[in-house]
Amino acid sequence: MSFNSGGRKGHTSKNVTVESNDPIRPRTTLSISAFVEVEFGFETNTINIGRVRKGESISKTAVLLLKDVSKRDLVEVSTNSPHIDARILESNGRDEGRIEVEVSVRAKMSPGRLNDMITARLTDESQPAATMRVVGTIIGNVEVTPEAVHFTIDTSQVVMDQEFRDVKVISTEDDASFKLLGVEDTRNLLTIEVDTLTPGKQYLIRTWPNENAAQLRRVVSGLVKIKTDDTEQPELSFSYRIILRRQ
After folding, report:
1. DSSP β-bridge partners for residue 16
2. What's the pLDDT at 32?
């Protein structure tokens, strides 16, 4: 049995199923755990703040791993966005090699997808800088749900099944309304139908793979752009993925 530590940090575990000719216990599961030692780096590559309404703020805690605990006071953290703050929390004294970093998203963030970076450095530059991506969605007056859909095409079929996926575009404010001006698939792989559920409040976008998708020979991803008359969110979008499978 071997263990590949590539891309892993800190505590990691895996279950391994072993089959044998033992008549009593022909199958058993082994729980394997290990600690991948990191000189300096975030425990995870990404922190997801989830979906946050415009005007609200949120904080989450990330963990920065530091092998040489004597250098704890040399750690600095920064962000690439004026709307995201990162600060090192006081140590609880239990594990000096795990530094908690509070990540806060300010209420003044504009609506849209969040994709920013936090950087941690040692002031003596003895280790390369560590980075962690901050992702999430700031919800404004208009919301798209879900933000991503996927389709599976059976390549053994002569005629494709029409596998529908529905996406709603809705107003999040009781006293606000908007108009849906247009919907476009940037790769022209989907057929799109738009239906008004509640004028100015809710619209339904129904999608399914078209004849162009039937010619695909590999898995592809695409983006559907939605245009509205909302001044703050004139363009929204949702992503899609088409998976090929032969039954």
Report:
1. 30
2. 85
Interatomic CA distance for residues 210 and 151, integer angstroms: 11
pLDDT beyond 70 at 105: yes
Count Cα atoms within 13 angstroms, Cβ side, for 80: 11
pTM equals: 0.67
* φ and ψ of 21, to 5 deg: -95, 15
- Residue 245's closest CA among 158, 151, 165, 164? 151
The number of CA neighbours under 13 Å toward the Cβ of 6 is: 2
- pLDDT of 102 reads 96
Separation of first and last alpha carbons in the chain: 33
Q: Residue 74: what are its φ and ψ, rounded to 5°? A: -95, 0
Question: 76-107 b/e with 16+ CB inside 10 Å = b?
Answer: ebebebebbbbebeeeeeeeeeebebebebee
- Measured CA to CA, the distance from residue 104 to residue 177 in angstroms comes to 30
- Ordered structural domains, the chain, with CATH: 1-37 (no CATH), 40-139 (2.60.40.60), 142-245 (2.60.40.10)
Q: Which amino acid is at 154?
A: D
